[in-house]
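Chapter review: from sequence to fold.
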Amino acid sequence: MAQEETFTIDQGADVAIQLYLVNTDGSPKNLTNHLITAKMKKNFNSDSADTTEFISAVMTPPSDGIITLSLTNTQTDQLKSGRYVYDVEMSYSDSDSNTIIERVLEGRIAVSPSVTR
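The token string follows.
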């Protein structure tokens, strides 16, 4: 089951969020050959035109279990202030070449309006 976290981001600003993924024993999750995808939208029923995709990166070395999610100031400038929902999914292939998708984080994002635009 995914962890839940609430964030606030500033409209018109660059955003970088680092996530530290760990195994149940507390050791860093090895993210070698893992793909990370993260998106946010106004609500769960919004269509894809209302979706903002984070730039997702597994940091080096992938064995440290660190992910960075980022949005550019251009992306956040286009967001309307208010509340959004988001999730972060991790995908990888198991030993039988099946694609496994795991939601690792979900929650709400509040976009704070900018005065200086």
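Two observations follow directly from the output. The CA atoms of residues 89 and 103 lie 4 Å apart. The radius of gyration is 15 Å.
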